[in-house]
Amino acid sequence: MTAFCLSTHRNGKPRRLDLGTPRVMAVLNVTPDSFSDGGRFPEARPAWEEALRMETSGAEVIDIGGESSGPGSLGVTLQEELDRVIPVVQELRARSEVWISVDTWRAEVARTALEAGADMVNDVTALRGDPHMGALLAQSSCPAVLMYSKDPSARTTRESPDYPDVVAQVRTFFQERLQLAAELGIRQENLMLDPGLGFFVSGNPSFSFELLRRLPELATLGCSLLVGTSRKSFLAGVLPGHHLAPSERLVPSLTAALWAWLHGAQVVRVHDVDETILMRATLQALQGKAPAF
Questions:
Q1: Which of 21, 59, 80, 140 qualifies as a cystine partner to 76, CB 3.0-4.6 A?
Q2: Cα→Cα distances 42→27, 220, 230, Å
Q3: pLDDT in tens, 146-188
Q4: 3-state secondary structure (DSSP) of residue 114
Q5: 3-class state of residue 14 by DSSP
Q6: Is pLDDT above 80 for 260?
Q7: Over the Cα atoms of the chain, what is R_g?
Q8: Which of 23, 231, 269, 280 is the catalytic position?
C-alpha cells in the first residue's frame, strides 16, 4: 500500500498526519437533525468535551459538522453554521493538538474554522457547493476530503439511480474532480477521496457493497481513501427479514470499516470510536504490529 501523509501548517509550524497505519476519524455532529445522533450536543461545551473523550479513546481526527447532509435534513444559514462549529473548534484547539476537520461545503465556514485552528476540510460536495472553496484550499494548502455524491448539493436525496458500473462512475467523477483541483493549484497528495456510500450513491444498497468490494480500484487514483460506513442506510438490511435502526448497526459498521482498512482505505470515519479503536488494536495484534498482551 502506498504510504500517504497529510501535511499542513499552523502558526508557522508544520503538522503531519502519517497515514501509513489505519487512522480513525471521529464524527462530531453539532446539529439537531443528524440521522444517527442529532441533538446530542446542542452547546459548545458538551461537544468539545466529547471530542476530548474521543481523542483519549484513540481517534486521530475529529470531524466537526454543523449542517446535516442526509435525506430530509434541513439547510442552515451561514451564520447558524458558524455559530455551531467555530466555538467548538476554538475550544477544542485550545485544549488539544488532535487533528481537527471541519465538515462543510461553505468556503467561509472553512476559512473561519482554519483560522480558529482546524487542520483540514471535509467537503461532501467535492468543490461543487461553493465556487470559492477550491481557491481557499489552494491558498491555505490544507488537506481536504472530496466525497462522491449523486447530488451536487450538500444534502442528498433518497433517489435510487442505477449504475451500469458504479465503480467506473465514481472513478470518472474523482478523475474530473482531481483535474479541477490540479487546475486550481491544490496539491493532490493532500486530497483524500471518499466514495460516499449509502444514499450519497443510491438508495439501492447493492451499489455501496459493490464499491466496498472493489475499493482497490479506487486506490489506484493516487490519493488516500477515507471510507465512512458508520451506521449508514445500506447496512440496514444485512440480516434477512430485519431492518436495523441506526443504533443497531454497530456490528455491520465495524465489519465494513475493517473491510475498508484491509482493502485500501487509510482512514475510516466513525461514530463508535471506542469499539473501532478496539477493533483496530485486535487487527494490529493479529498482524503482529502490536502486542496482544
A1: 80
A2: 15, 40, 22
A3: 999 999 888 777 888 999 999 999 999 999 999 999 999 999 9
A4: helix
A5: strand
A6: yes
A7: 18
A8: 269
At 40, the pLDDT band (50, 70, 90 cuts) reads low
Q: Which of 151, 150, 146 is nearest to 184 (CA)?
A: 146
Residue 101's DSSP bridge partners are: 63, 120
The DSSP annotation for 262-279 comes to HTT-SEEEES-HHHHHHH
What's the CA angle centered on 154, arms 149 and 157, to 5 degrees?
A: 60
Q: How many CB atoms lie within 10 A of CB 164?
A: 6
Measured distance CA(159)–CA(268) in Å, rounded: 25
Mean pLDDT, rounded, of the chain: 93
Cα–Cα distances in angstroms (integers) from residue 104 to residues 93, 129, 209, in the given order? 18, 9, 26
Q: Tell me the one-letter amino acid at 141.
A: S
Residue 13 annotated in active site: no
Q: Which residues contact 232 (CB under 8 A, 6 or more apart)?
A: 197, 198, 199, 208, 249, 253
84, 171, 232, 249: which one is catalytic? 232
